[in-house]
Structures are given as C-alpha cells and as structure tokens.
Specification:
Structural class: mainly beta
Radius of gyration: 22 Å
Largest sheet: 11 strands, antiparallel
Helix content: under 10%
Order of helices and strands: EEEEEEEEEHEEEEE
Amino acid sequence: MLFRSLAGRYDHARFDVPDNCFRDDEWAARLYKNVKGYELAAYGYWGYWKSPGGFDPAAGRATFPRLAVYGASVRGQVGEGIGNLEAGYYDSRDDRNGDDPFVNNSQFRFLAGYERDLPMIAQDLTVGAQYYLELMTEHDAYVRSVRALHAGMHTADEFRQVVTFRITKLLMNQNLRLSLFAYYRPTDSDAYLRPSVNYKIDDHWTVEVGGNVFLSDHPTTFFGQFRDNTNIYASLRYSF
C-alpha cells in the first residue's frame, strides 16, 4: 500500500472506449437564427457520454453508454441587461428505465442567467448570475436498483442545483479590474470562491493576485473534497 501519495496516481482506470469506425460514430446538429434581436437555437447530439457514465462489473471496466441530447436556447435583452435561458434532455439510451445501477440515468438540464451593468451604483460595475438545475428521471427506479446491490450504498440526489455569481469593477481608466466569481450548490451546501485583482501596468505588463477558496462542512461533497486545497496566487505576465 502506498501512503502520502496522490489518490489515483498509481490506480489507472480501465476503460471500454467506443472506437469502431462507422459503428461508434457521433453526430451533432445545430440550428440558429436571430429574431428581433434574440438569438434562438435548437440542437441535437447522438453519440456517447463524454465521461465514463457506466461500468461493466464482469469486465471491471468503465464504459461510455450511448447518449442522445436534445435542447434549445434563447439569449437577448431583458430589461436593462442580457438574459439567457437553455433547456436540454439527456436521453441515456442504454438505461431509459433507470433500473440499471451501472449506467447513468436520463436527465433534464436547465440553465437561466442574467447580466447587466449597474451605473446607478457605480460606473464600470457589472454583475451576473446563473442558475443551473439537473433533474434525474426515473429516480425511484435508480434508488431501488442501487439499494438492491447494497442497502447502505450512497445514492445521488434527484435534483442537483448550482448557483453562480460574478461581480466585476473596473477602476483607474479600466486598468484595474476587481472580480469575484462564486459557485454555490444548494443541494450540498458547499461553495467555491474565486476572487482576483488584475492591474495592467502598461501595454506589455500585467500583474494579478487572486485565490481559490473552497467552503463546506462535509468532505464528501463536490467542493468539500477540495476544502484543504484553498490557496492564493500571484502572477506577472508579459505580452508582445
């Protein structure tokens, strides 16, 4: 057994990768049009989960199950700012009933965002926010299948939510940029903050100071697993 080493460094995952020509092809299509200042789009994808979404217990290999995605989006002016709305359906074609614990369930995904300047508060101040939601279909069947393998096994939530927030302020003739980008996950009550200060010294030199802050009371959540990796950084960049 290896101690004091990075997890996964010596434990290489085994994959069953779709690689047969003319049988494991991927297809994608997108239609878009501007209508009265609004960007409308519809899209589709037919292929495989991009990260291993399944597991073959007999072979001991991670797999890439078949996947089809259908979605639509709209973006345009809303009031004094820019809004966007997107919805998609992830059709897990190898587990449409949701009763295979070794394959990802199908999902509905939704994204809504809004961004605007706030000159009434301060010049060159911009704020933006987004709300993201994942809804697992056939969640009850998924839970039953997982608990049939092991009664105490952890199961994923039916809903997964992420809220993001960005605030940016420009100062000193827009040479100084103060920024804060924050992720908050109501589902798991964890957060990730990315503050930064960027200063353009001249046409060539730029200096930046920032940090990555992880907040959580539980080490098993997505951001909580990184809570001991909170850090600050500084950089000096030369461009020509």
